[in-house]
Every structure is written in structure tokens, then in C-alpha cells.
Design a protein that fits this description.
The complex is a heterodimer of chains A (348) and B (435). Chain A is 78% helix and 1% strand. In chain A, strands 1-2 form a two-stranded antiparallel sheet. In chain A, helix 1 packs across helix 12, helix 1 packs parallel to helix 13 and helix 6 packs across helix 8. Chain A is globular and about 55 Å long. Chain A is mainly α and 348 residues long. Chain B has 435 residues and is mainly alpha-helical. In chain B, a hairpin with a 2-residue loop joins strand 1 and strand 2. Classes of the chains: A mainly alpha (348), B mainly alpha (435). At the A-B interface, helix 3, helix 4, helix 5, helix 7 and helix 13 of A face helix 2, helix 3 and helix 14 of B. Bound molecules: CIS-heme D hydroxychlorin gamma-spirolactone (HDD) and protoporphyrin IX containing FE (2 copies).
């Protein structure tokens, strides 16, 4: 029986996983927005807008859930993270604000013709947020947050300003772009668009695979505590093999145009990457000082929080299923023609 | 933090109230088949969507900002007040899901299911305000723990949620959101009606928005009276600051206006109503009212700011209630609230007052609590992040919020500019049917 602390840490990881799979893909979509060109550019952008619209806010709440659970259950860790990583987190928030602004401006605009001015912002924010999210995670994993803060540099800059956290940041960008391209092959209805995104998904696959391998190797020096656990524990090898298998599965499915399978494999691959990182870091919240035990809130709080999460989940998951069934039913479950078109909510 | 919240509260208030108006319009369409009401519901739904997207972003920023700026506060209070924050998270999530269904689902779900989705949006919007205001109420009147050596023990998050200030603050905040948004939207449409008095769309919009706003605005002074008396009981120092009441005394006077001077502890230029404060607070002209002298000088909040903000809120509240009663009278005598230009002009004039009152009210609550971040337990200065050069994050976050505010203004202006008012005239000219 896992402890309350473990379960709640698990909730944080699962929320982050969902955030990567949904919100992450949203940023990834922004990256492709940036590269949409050629004769299909306008239609590519339209596809992107239609795919995001109805589920945008829901995608982004996952991050909020992760944060609220973190500060309720592990307040010391939250305080340590937000203090030391003040700068990267603020930069990430800037990205989120810009992303939300451009979404609010373009997606809910009365006239779609006016949206083009927001597009560069959309695209830029799509790079900023994953980069700094990755830097944050890379720093937590690296064990560079242990030292005392003698000066501003030592306390607030040095912990994250190292090559390894930035490598994780770059990897995050690649992951988001890869996920988005794979998803969009499925969202596209016209063959030529689908072919465009298939090509991109394949390129992104190569980039992500190389980078993932590189970062994993680099972790031996960049995040040694975590990296050696892949050797120490029984799950290390299966996890790496699993990620590789899913990755190859996604490649094969893309190659043979089995887009639904590709999506499942790519999402699974991302989930394994996030989950593997979490497992390797467990029980540390911040390597090397704070663990799920020594940073935890009192048991009363943990119990109530878990109760709230369970009750909330019971309400939320059916609702979320309903939402996806209405708008993504056609895409995910293979029912025909159930996609919102951009004109839908305007004319009513 | 205060800046961010000052912005956020505006998005939040609109996010609470606009869905109610949108539902009222949809309801009218479902009952009567009135196409104008449908167009209105769709317009307001879009407005809600813009506000919600921006609200979501500003909320994300806030949840990090709590730690970025007040790590000690969060480390200390997280276990006690984290619960309502998590509940708030779920309320937002529910709202996000059903807003998606409402906005994009006009053709995908049945009208009934669609309306029901709208109800969920309105209820979860209000719920998020309820949860988060209980947190603020806890900072004012902390309960649900015992202090041992400066650390909280025997934590009871439920008792913390149901702290003595929670109920009054929740009621007051919800009414504030409905009153401010309702009258502000009514004010915008009043302005448009003054330009084009025959526009059916604006008449409908004006009626619904004004009704929602007026009902809340009439109730607000009642709630204000209740909350003031609760503050007198639970946070006497805040009340003393709000009333510029320096010396504990029986038969305390009520002061209207004035410019409190903390050095001389007098209030020049005030209109004093003898025994007025004792009477208002305790229904007894001889009751003793605690003054600022009950606590050491270094625990006084900035009296001038709190007093002026309080007066401003009350003045706005009374003006809004008066306009609302005028409207009710017109409706009772004439059967319709719109029509009189003088009335429309007045409503247009009170457009911003609700939001002014909200900001002023929060200044009373927050500045009136200083120097404490958690009343009597933790000082604001102890809670702040150790990071030097705090001016930089201050400027950063202020800029971010200015960007968001700019986004809202641009998006909403486009939105209002595109109301069917303009199209309608075109259609009449070209003889096309209404879409
Ligand atoms: C439309 C907005 C609005 C209006 C018309 C009023 N208020 Fe208000 N007031 C608020 C909006 C508000 C607020 C912004 O929503 C506050 C800040 C914190 C809270 O819970 O509500 C608030 C707080 C607040 C407090 C401090 C509560 C605390 O710190 O615990 C008092 C004593 C009053 N109000 C009293 C009044 C009175 C006597 C009014 C007479 C008409 C009044 N308010 C009108
Ligand atoms: C749940 C809601 C809220 C929480 C948890 C909260 C938290 C805080 C905290 C931590 C402080 C002390 C630090 C500071 O000076 O910035 C503060 C002060 C302040 N808050 Fe809030 N706040 C809330 C709502 C609001 C709202 C809606 C406003 C709207 C205007 C607001 C306005 C202010 C102001 C003006 C101060 C400055 C007081 C001073 O230093 O003199 N707060 N609040
Ligand atoms: C410290 C204080 C606060 C935090 C951390 C916070 C957090 C948040 C978050 C995370 C969201 C986004 C929800 C989403 O993504 O869907 C949000 C929106 C919202 N907040 Fe806050 N909030 C705070 C203060 C307040 C206050 C004082 C109120 C109101 C009284 C309020 C009412 C709302 C409402 C109604 C929404 C929904 C937005 C909409 O419908 O437009 N919040 N807040």
C-alpha cells in the first residue's frame, strides 16, 4: 500500500503527464504554426485553430492542478522551487501569458481575418514556455539546488544556468513539436494536409529520438543521482526498452500511415518519458534535499486533499470524456464527421 | 501580487456574472423563440470565452506567483488553505470543460443539454469565487490550527475554510461581481441605445444586464451592513482604520469624508454624525467602539488609504443602489426600463462604479489587514521572497498584466463594435433577413 505522500506525488506526475500530452501538444502546434508555409499555409493554420479551440482551457488546467497539489501537499518543496527557480518560472509564465493572449485574440475573435497579427506572438510563446518548463525540470533533476545562497548568483542563477537544464529545455520543445505533428495527422481531413503533417511528424521523430538519446546519456553527468537509478533498479531497463519500442512503433505507424496507432504510440512514448523521469527522481521532489516525506504537509491535510481529488475526479473525468466525445469523437474514436468547424459557433 | 490580483479580480468578476446574463438570454430564446435573444446569448458567450481564456492565464500566473513572491507564506499556510485552492482548481476545470461545450456545441448537443452546460459554467464560476474568497477570509480571521512555537499544529483545513469572515465575504463578493458586471454591461448598451434608440438588440441586452446588476446592487448595501458589523467584531482594527476612529470610545461618531491625520490623530474636514457609528454597528448609541489606540502604533494599517477606499466603496454602492431603484420604479410604472434618455444617461454614467467599488473594497480588506499577511500570526515582511531586486519581478508582472488587460480591451472592443447594431442597419438597408 503506497503512502498518502506517494499517491499525491503520483497525482502531480499524472497531471504533468496530461499537461504534456494536451497542453504540450498545444505549444507544439504553435511551433508548426510558425513553420506553416507554402501553398497550404492558410489551411494548415485553420486546421490548427479548429483542433485547439474547444479544449484549449481544459488543456491548461492540468498545470494548475499540479501546482495546487504541490503547494498543498508539499509546501516546503513549492517554496524552495519557486524561490530558487524564480527566474525560469517567471520566464515560463511570460510564455504562458503570451500564448493565452494570442489564443484569446485569435480564437474568439469575431472576425477571423483580423487574427494574423497575433500569430508571431503565438509562435514565439510556443517556444518560450516549453524551453523554461524543461529548464525547471532539468534543474530539479540535476541536484544543483542543494547549495546555500551566498549571493544572488549562487542562489538564483547558478542552479539552473548550466548546459544540462537547457538540454532538457530543448528536448521539451522537440517533444511538444513531435506530439503536435502526430496529432495533427489525425486531425487533418484532407489528404494533402495530412501528408504535410506526416512529413513533419517524421522529421520531428528523428529530432526527438536523437535528442532524447543524447539527453539520457548526458544525464550521467548532468543528473547523476537520477541517471544511476536506471541501473540500480529493476524497472530501469524495461522502461528504456519500452520507450524505444513505442518510439519505433510510432515511426512504423507513421511510415505506413496508421495515424491512430501513431498517435497512441507517440502519446505513450511521452508518458513513459515523463513517468520514467518521475520514477527515477522518486522520492526526491528536489534533488538532493527535499523528498515526498520530509516536505509533506500534515496527514490531515493530505487525507482531505486526496478526498477532494477523488471526488473531483469522479465529477471531472466523465465531464472530460463528454467534452472529448462531442468534439474529438470523430478524431479519436473513429466516428465520422464530428468536428467543429470554425464557422460553427459564430452563426449558431 | 496586489497588482496581479487587482487585475485578476476584474476578469474574475466578469467571469462570474457574464454566464448568468448569457443564460438569461438563452432562456428567453428557448421560451419565446426570440432570435435577438439568441444572438445576444451567443455574443455574451463569446465575451465569457475571452474573459475565461484571459482569466485562466492570469490565474495560472497567480498560482505560481504566490510562491514566487510569498514563499514563506505558502510554506506556512499551504497545508491549511491549500484545500480550497485545490477545490478552486476543480471548479475551474469544470467551468473550462462546460464552457467549451457551451461555446462550440450550439449544433452538437440538444438545446436542453446546451442550456444545462451553461448552468454548470455559471455555477462553477461562482464556486471558484467562493473557494478563493474563503482563503482570503482566512487571512483576515485565521482559524483551524494552533500555534506552537510559531508553527501551526492540529491543522483542520475544513475549520479554516469556515472561518468567521468567510460567509460574509463570500456573499459580498458574489453580489459585487453581479452588480458590477450587470450595471457595467447595461451601461455600455445604454450608451449604444443613446445613439440608436430603436435597436432591439441593445434594448434586450440592456434589460437583461440591468436586471441582473440591479437586483445585486440593491442587495449590496444590506450585505455591506452585515459585513461591516462582522468586521467590527472580528477585525476591530481594520474597522477603526476604515472609519478613521482613533480613540476607543462610547457613543462613537460616524464620519463622512475627512482626511485622517495619524500624527495628530484627528480627522479634519469630516462631517460627524454623533453616536452614528455606535448606532450603525451595535444598534446602541452608547456602545463602545474599539479605536486604533487598542493596538501599538506599529500595528496600524495605513489609515488614510483604508478610510478613503472605504468611503469610496460605500459611495459607489449607494449610487448604484439608487440607480437600480430608479430602474425598478421605471419598470413598475412604464413596464420597461429603457426609454428615458435621462435614465440611460445615468446608467451610462455609473458604468465603471461597480469595478471602482470592487477595487476599493479589496483595498479596504487587504491594506486594512496590514502589517499582517495573516492577521495576528505572520507579518507581510516575514513572508516575502528572499530574492533581492524585487522591483524586477514587480515590473515584469505588472507588464504581463498590462498585456493581458490590453488583450481584453482589444478583444472586447472588437466584440462590442461588431454587435448586431451595425449589421442590423445594413440588413435593413439591403433588405436581408437577420442571421
Ligand atoms: C460592487 C462592489 C461593492 C459595493 C457596491 C460594496 N462593496 Fe464592500 N466590498 C467589495 C465590493 C463592494 C469587495 C471588493 O468585493 C470586498 C473586498 C473583499 C470582499 O470580500 O469584498 C468588499 C469588502 C468590504 C468590507 C471589508 C470586509 C473584510 O475585510 O472582511 C466592508 C466592511 C464592506 N465591504 C462594506 C461595504 C458597505 C457598507 C457597502 C455599502 C454600500 C459596500 N461594502 C458596498
Ligand atoms: C484570495 C485572494 C487574495 C489573496 C490570497 C491575497 C494575498 C495578499 C498578500 C499575500 C498580500 C501581502 C503582500 C502585498 O502587499 O502584496 C496582499 C496585499 C494586498 N492585496 Fe491581496 N490577496 C487577495 C485578494 C486581493 C484582491 C482581489 C485585491 C484587489 C485589489 C488585493 C489587493 C491587495 C492590496 C492592494 C494589497 C497591498 C496591501 C499593502 O501592502 O498595503 N488582494 N494580498
Ligand atoms: C491568490 C489568489 C488567486 C489565485 C491563485 C487564483 C487562481 C485562479 C486560477 C488558477 C484561475 C484560472 C482557472 C482556469 O484555468 O480555468 C482563476 C480564474 C478565476 N478566478 Fe482566481 N485566483 C485568485 C484570486 C481570485 C479571487 C479573489 C477571485 C474572486 C473573487 C477569483 C475568482 C476567479 C474566477 C471566478 C475565475 C474564473 C475565471 C473566469 O471565469 O473568467 N480568483 N483564478
Amino acid at each position: 500500500m503506497p503512502t498518502l505522500e506517494t499517491i499525491l506525488a503520483g497525482v502531480i506526475v499524472v497531471s504533468l503527464m496530461w499537461y504534456v500530452l494536451t497542453g504540450g501538444a498545444d505549444f507544439g502546434v504553435g511551433i508548426w504554426h510558425l513553420t506553416a508555409r507554402g501553398p497550404h499555409a492558410a489551411r494548415q493554420r485553420r486546421l490548427i485553430a479548429d483542433a485547439i479551440g474547444p479544449i484549449w482551457e481544459a488543456n491548461h488546467v492540468w498545470l494548475i492542478i499540479a501546482v495546487t497539489v504541490l503547494f498543498t501537499a508539499f509546501p516546503r518543496a513549492f517554496a524552495a522551487i519557486t524561490t530558487t527557480l524564480h527566474i525560469p518560472l517567471t520566464l515560463m509564465l511570460i510564455g504562458i501569458v503570451l500564448r493565452g493572449s494570442s489564443f484569446a485574440l485569435s480564437s474568439h475573435a469575431v472576425d477571423r481575418g483580423e487574427t494574423s497579427r497575433a500569430q508571431p506572438v503565438f509562435a514565439a510563446s510556443s517556444l518560450i514556455t516549453p524551453l523554461w518548463l524543461g529548464v525547471t525540470i532539468g534543474t530539479l533533476a540535476s541536484g544543483r539546488m542543494g547549495g546555500g545562497a551566498a549571493s544572488f548568483r549562487e542562489g538564483f542563477v547558478d542552479p539552473w544556468s548550466a548546459p544540462f537544464p537547457f538540454a532538457v529545455g530543448a528536448l521539451t520543445i522537440a517533444l511538444f513539436a513531435y506530439l503536435a505533428a502526430v496529432y495533427l495527422t489525425l486531425e487533418a481531413r484532407e489528404d494533402d494536409l495530412r501528408a504535410d503533417f506526416r512529413r513533419r511528424a517524421l522529421i520531428a521523430w528523428v529530432v526527438f529520438a536523437l535528442m532524447a538519446w543524447g539527453v539520457f546519456e548526458w544525464a550521467a553527468t548532468g543528473a547523476p543521482v537520477i541517471r544511476e537509478r536506471f541501473h540500480l533498479f529493476w524497472w530501469g531497463r524495461p522502461l528504456v526498452i519500452g520507450a524505444a519500442a513505442l518510439s519505433l512503433g510510432a515511426l512504423a505507424a507513421l511510415w505506413t500511415r496508421h495515424y491512430r496507432l501513431a498517435r497512441v504510440c507517440a502519446a505513450g512514448q511521452a508518458a513513459v518519458v515523463v513517468g520514467g523521469w518521475a520514477l527515477a527522481q522518486f522520492p526526491y521532489l528536489v534533488v538532493p534535499n527535499l523528498t515526498v516525506t520530509n516536505a509533506a504537509a500534515p496527514a490531515t491535510t493530505l487525507r482531505l486533499l486526496l478526498a477532494v481529488l477523488v471526488i473531483g475526479g469522479v465529477i471531472l473525468f466523465p465531464a472530460l470524456y463528454y467534452l472529448y466525445r462531442i468534439f474529438k469523437g470523430g478524431v479519436i474514436m473513429g466516428k465520422p464527421g464530428q468536428r467543429p468547424s470554425s464557422s460553427d459557433h459564430r452563426t449558431g | 501580487m496586489a497588482m496581479s490580483l487587482g487585475f485578476h479580480i476584474i476578469f474574475a468578476a466578469i467571469g462570474i456574472a457574464l454566464p448568468v446574463m448569457m443564460l438569461a438570454a438563452e432562456w428567453r430564446w428557448m421560451r419565446t423563440g426570440d432570435e435577438t435573444a439568441l444572438a445576444l446569448a451567443q455574443r455574451w458567450a463569446k465575451g465569457s470565452a475571452i474573459l475565461f481564456a484571459v482569466g485562466a492565464v492570469s490565474g495560472t500566473v497567480l498560482s505560481f506567483e504566490l510562491g514566487l513572491l510569498w514563499p514563506e507564506f505558502m510554506a506556512w499556510a499551504g497545508p491549511i488553505i491549500g484545500l480550497p485552492f485545490s477545490l478552486e482548481g476543480f471548479a475551474f476545470f469544470t467551468e473550462a470543460i462546460f464552457l467549451g461545450i457551451y461555446l462550440y456545441g450550439w449544433h452538437r448537443v440538444s438545446p436542453r443539454a446546451h442550456f444545462a452546460a451553461g448552468i454548470v459554467v455559471a455555477v462553477s464560476g461562482a464556486a471558484s469565487a467562493v473557494f478563493v474568497v474563503t482563503i482570503n477570509a482566512w487571512m483576515n480571521t485565521p482559524t483551524g490550527f494552533r500555534l506552537v512555537d510559531g508553527q501551526p499544529v492540529d491543522i483542520d483545513p475544513i475549520a479554516a475554510m469556515f472561518n468567521p469572515s468567510a460567509l460574509q465575504q463570500v456573499i459580498h463578493m458574489l453580489l459585487a461581481a453581479y452588480a458590477a458586471t450587470g450595471l457595467a454591461v447595461a451601461g455600455v448598451h445604454a450608451r449604444l441605445l443613446l445613439k440608436d434608440g430603436t435597436n432591439v438588440f441593445h434594448r434586450r441586452a440592456f434589460t437583461i444586464a440591468f436586471t441582473v446588476g440591479a437586483v445585486a446592487a440593491v442587495l449590496q448595501p444590506v450585505s455591506g451592513d452585515l459585513i461591516t458589523r462582522a468586521v467590527a467584531r472580528n477585525q476591530p482594527v481594520k474597522l477603526a482604520a476604515a472609519e478613521a476612529h482613533f480613540h476607543t470610545a462610547a457613543a462613537a461618531p460616524f464620519r463622512l469624508g475627512g482626511w485622517p491625520d495619524v500624527d495628530t490623530q484627528t480627522v479634519p474636514y469630516a462631517l460627524e454624525i454623533p453616536a452614528g457609528l455606535s448606532l450603525l454597528l451595535f444598534y446602541d448609541p452608547d456602545a463602545v467602539v474599539t479605536g486604533l489606540d487598542a493596538v501599538p502604533r506599529d500595528e496600524w494599517p495605513p489609515v488614510l488609504i483604508v478610510h478613503l477606499a472605504f468611503q469610496l466603496m460605500v459611495a459607489c454602492g449607494l449610487a448604484m443602489a439608487a440607480v437600480s431603484l430608479w430602474g425598478a420604479w421605471r419598470w413598475w410604472r412604464r413596464g420597461a426600463v429603457w426609454g428615458s434618455r435621462a435614465f440611460l444617461r445615468t446608467v451610462a454614467a455609473v458604468t465603471p462604479l461597480g469595478f471602482v467599488a470592487i477595487e476599493a473594497g479589496w483595498v479596504v480588506t487587504e491594506v486594512g489587514r496590514q502589517p499582517w499577511i495573516i492577521s495576528g500570526v505572520m507579518r507581510t515582511a516575514e513572508a516575502v521572497t528572499p530574492m533581492p531586486g524585487l522591483i524586477v519581478p514587480f515590473i515584469t508582472f505588472t507588464t504581463l498584466y498590462l498585456v493581458l488587460a490590453g488583450v481584453v480591451v482589444v478583444a472586447l472592443r472588437r466584440h462590442v463594435a461588431a454587435t448586431p447594431g451595425a449589421d442590423r442597419r445594413d440588413e435593413r438597408r439591403t433588405g436581408r433577413a437577420d442571421a
